[in-house]
């Protein structure tokens, strides 16, 4: 309830103090969920998260106070002072985990459970993204473009040598944040569409991994023996998150590249499209491990399919939407 309250306060406020209050409520609400397992890694993750978010919140408050000092405005959309804009970009980048302020995010996600990791990767990123969208006319285009390209590059490079699934999804999140940020100044609605589709696909993958108890590549190799249909659809959901054309994840990347080309930013569009190939490589590796690879094991692994395991309806619905939403895109455009 506190998570929903903090998110609602932040996205519906027009005063900086209320937005800051909502962010603080969010931070305080997620910390018990991170440290719930009473494991040293979980406590370390909660401490890192608290220190990072507290520093970012202090920067955001300092940014709004500086703007109010020079302009007399506490309105979120009236952020006009250059120093305040720079401080706000830094604060929101720390909260989101944009490069070069990304170091905390993979460690915190690795120390959390799958359900808490899902909240960290989706719901907790919504209030800072809303603040970015509200203040987008005032932000520096060069700085945002640089950070976006760096995030796409780093998310791809760092995900290549990971074996822990949560860390791979953390670097995937950093890479997707780069795509959201690069189009923010030119089409904020497209940023929100990308964020919503990313949340849909990530939720499907996290819930499927939680159901099959997959934590690393080794356990992913035996996932097909537990729930074979879920392993097959998980592969398609991973390829959708990678952005392969017939699947849902291709829609935001297609629209972003189209919009960047319209803005005469073809070199930037080409660069970020090529950088997404890095992410495609480790998504393909995950999909390969989930469906094709057979690890050297005893025959006990082959009998797991006989156990009675049920897949809940929300998981199947989310996976279906994360795979098959691209044919519905003309209807989405018609409504917008």
Task: Outline the structure in words.
- The chain is mainly α and 336 residues long.
- It folds into 2 domains: 1-115, no CATH class; 140-335, no CATH class.
- Helix content is 72%, strand content 0%.
- α7 packs antiparallel against α10.
- The model has no long low-confidence stretch (mean pLDDT 85).
- It catalyses: a ubiquinone + NADH + 5 H(+)(in) = a ubiquinol + NAD(+) + 4 H(+)(out).
The overall average pLDDT, rounded, is 85
Content of β-strand:
under 5%
- Major sheet: size, sense and barrel closure? none
The overall number of domains is 2
Number of strand segments: 0
Output the structural class.
mainly alpha
How many helices in DSSP terms? Answer: 16
Rg calculated over all Cα atoms? 20 Å
End-to-end Cα distance, whole Å, is: 31 Å
Series of secondary-structure elements, N-terminal to C-terminal: HHHHHHHHHHHHHHHH
Q: Indicate the low-confidence ranges by residue numbers.
A: none
Pfam families: NADH_dehy_S2_C (PF06444), Proton_antipo_M (PF00361)
GO biological process, one term: mitochondrial electron transport, NADH to ubiquinone
Organism: Scytalopus speluncae
Catalytic activity: a ubiquinone + NADH + 5 H(+)(in) = a ubiquinol + NAD(+) + 4 H(+)(out)
């Amino acid at each position: 309830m506190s998570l929903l309250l903090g998110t609602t306060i932040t996205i519906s406020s027009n005063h900086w103090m209320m937005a800051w209050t909502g962010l603080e409520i969010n931070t305080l609400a997620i910390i018990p969920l991170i440290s719930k397992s009473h494991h040293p890694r979980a406590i370390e993750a909660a401490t890192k998260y608290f220190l990072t978010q507290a520093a970012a919140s202090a920067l955001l408050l300092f940014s709004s106070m500086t703007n109010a000092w020079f302009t007399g405005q506490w309105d979120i959309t009236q952020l006009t002072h250059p120093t305040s804009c720079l401080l706000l970009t830094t604060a929101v980048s720390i909260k989101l985990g944009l490069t070069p302020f990304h170091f905390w995010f993979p460690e915190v996600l690795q120390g959390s459970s799958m359900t808490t990791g899902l909240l960290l990767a989706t719901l907790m990123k919504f209030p800072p993204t809303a603040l970015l969208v509200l203040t987008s006319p005032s932000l520096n285009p060069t700085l945002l473009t640089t950070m976006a390209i760096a995030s796409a590059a780093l998310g791809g490079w760092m995900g290549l040598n990971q074996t822990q699934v949560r860390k791979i999804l953390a670097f995937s999140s950093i890479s997707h944040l780069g795509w959201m940020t690069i189009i923010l100044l030119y089409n904020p609605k497209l940023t929100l569409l990308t964020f919503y589709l990313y949340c849909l696909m990530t939720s499907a993958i996290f819930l499927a991994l939680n159901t099959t108890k997959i934590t690393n590549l080794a356990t992913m190799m035996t996932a097909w023996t537990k729930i074979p249909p879920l392993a097959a659809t998980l592969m398609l959901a991973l390829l959708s998150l990678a952005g392969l054309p017939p699947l849902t994840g291709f829609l935001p990347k297609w629209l972003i590249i189209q919009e960047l080309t319209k803005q005469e930013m073809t070199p930037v569009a080409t660069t970020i499209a090529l950088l997404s190939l890095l992410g495609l490589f480790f998504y393909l590796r995950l999909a390969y491990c989930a469906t094709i690879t057979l690890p050297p094991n005893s025959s006990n692994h082959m009998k797991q399919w006989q156990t009675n395991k049920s897949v809940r309806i929300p998981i199947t619905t989310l996976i279906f939407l994360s795979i098959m939403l691209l044919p519905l895109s003309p209807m989405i455009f018609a409504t917008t």
